[in-house]
Amino acid sequence: MNPKDVEAIVQAMRTNLLKLGSERHTEEFVLREVYRDFNRNKEGVLSLDDFKGMLAKLNLSAPDMYLEALMDKFDRNGNGIVEFEEVLQYVIYDRYHKY
Q1: Where are the alpha helices (DSSP H) in the chain?
Q2: Share of the chain above pLDDT 90, in %
């Protein structure tokens, strides 16, 4: 898996979050709302299916192997699960950091 492919997905997420946002609703707000829609178990962690649903809501899709690699990048604390704050940090706050 090429790291540039993973970064391209993240960049597309950022772009679409900005498009869906507004003056009142930042990309962080939009990401939180999309996350709430797909965090079906309400445990605060993302499954691969949840993540696919989030991307679909952002008008994006990617093969599972890319999504799995991206979820591995999101899991900053290495506990094997992806929490919303990890996604937020990687997608929104680290926008100028190249991986």
Answers
A1: 3-20, 27-38, 48-57, 64-74, 84-88
A2: 15
